[in-house]
Design a protein that fits this description.
This protein is α+β, with helices and mostly antiparallel strands and 85 residues long. It is 40% helix and 18% strand. Strand 2 and strand 3 form a beta hairpin.
Amino acid sequence: MARVTSGELQREFGRYRTVAQREAVIITNHGRDDLVLLAAAEYARLCRQMQKAFHVSELSDDVVDELGTVGVAESAAKYDHEYEL
C-alpha cells in the first residue's frame, strides 16, 4: 500500500488517483493513518465480501478460535431445548 500525507495528496491528486487504481493509498494526517483511497471496483468488492456467508471450512483458524470465545446471551437460554438429542 502506498502512504501519502494529506498535503501531498492535494498537490498530486492525479498521481495518487492512478496509484489507487492498482493499490490502496493510505492518507495520513499529522503522522497518523486517517483515510484510505481505493478504486471504486475494489470498494464494491469489499462491500460484497462483507455480505458473503462463509462455510466453516473457509474460515481461518484464528476466526474459528475466536468463535469459541463468543458468549451466548442469557435470553437465548429459552432455545436450549432445541439442541437436545
